Amino acid sequence: MNAEQLFSTLTARGVRFISKPPKLRVTPADRLSAEERELIRLHKNELLRLLGKPEPAPAEPTPEAAATPEAEQAASTEPANLTAELLLDFADALAIHPRSPTENDLALSRCAALIVAGARALRGARSPDVRRSIEDALRSRCTRACELLRTGKIMSADVVMVDLKRELTKLAGH
Question: Is the pLDDT of residue 104 over 70?
């Protein structure tokens, strides 16, 4: 199996590849067999190159595949994996512009509280559409906040996180 086949097979099962050269993260890792993990290690460089290219538009799922609970579950990231991924991103962003230990701890604890609230909202979401909206809000706002933290714009990152808190509160009510 080559890198493209491996990528296609795993993404069809809901596995996500996150390229942060020289690292490659794959989530949720618990969906991978030992053989698949070995193939990922073997094809890591090709996968990183593949992820660097613009992604083609995703194929439309067949009605049978879209209707199954497994397909619905695979369409979204598990809250625990998403939480870990976002927390790592925040820790990385904070490490770029170190402040006092107290300021770093405070910023990370604020981020962690919101990410955990988002994960709880994901677990409690009644519909797949609300679940996707919550996940999209978490990813987009946390990504933006991390970008701001990487450039030392702490106050701007706080504004983005306050906005995320409002949006999560609104979405959790649906």
Answer: yes
